[in-house]
Design goal:
Number of helices: 3
Number of domains: 2
CATH architecture of the largest domain: 2-Layer Sandwich
Oligomer: single chain
Shape: elongated
Order of helices and strands: HEEHEHEEEEE
Largest sheet: 5 strands, antiparallel
Strand order of the largest sheet: 7-6-5-4-8
CATH superfamily of the largest domain: RimP-like superfamily, N-terminal
Distance between the termini: 36 Å
Helix content: 25-40%
Structural class: alpha+beta
Length: about 150
């Protein structure tokens, strides 16, 4: 369902000079939330979020892909934005990140370091003392920017 919403919303977001960073559908308590995270150079503001929310809400009403009641939220991904696309990894090369893995890699499931050059096989991470570790992509569950250096 998130893939469907991504395909529906991404052209609208791009048409308005922004990037669709992520889409998630979650249940919190008794409520369901469809969240779209958008960004652009210089960051998004409330007007950007409101505009995309209105347009996407209309599209969702027409397509009706979700069979339960939910709240639509559109916001910035925040300072700790997730990195998901190849261009994200290229854009943020050299930045501090937190990498979570599905299972322990070198004895840990959470790694912090500077993002190395992107390649298709492994995530390159420069950790303490400029040691480079290469985590196979199939082990990576999440990568987020880390602003708590």
């Amino acid at each position: 369902m998130c893939d469907f919403v991504t395909k529906l919303a991404e052209p609208v977001v791009v048409q308005n000079g922004m990037e669709l960073v992520d889409v998630e559908f979650v249940k919190e308590g008794a409520n369901h939330y469809l969240r779209l995270f958008i960004d652009k150079d210089g960051g998004v503001d409330l007007d950007d979020c409101e505009k995309i929310s209105r347009i996407v809400s209309d599209l969702l009403d027409q397509e009706d892909p979700i069979d339960k009641a939910y709240f639509l939220e559109v916001s910035s991904p925040g300072l700790d934005r997730p990195l998901k696309k190849v261009k994200d990894f290229q854009k943020y090369e050299g930045h501090q990140v937190i990498v979570k893995t599905f299972s322990a890699f070198e004895g840990r499931k959470k790694h912090r370091g500077k993002l190395g050059q992107y390649n298709e096989s492994n995530l390159h991470l420069l950790v303490e003392d400029d040691k480079e570790i290469m985590i196979p992509w199939e082990m990576v569950s999440q990568v987020k920017l880390d602003w708590e250096e």
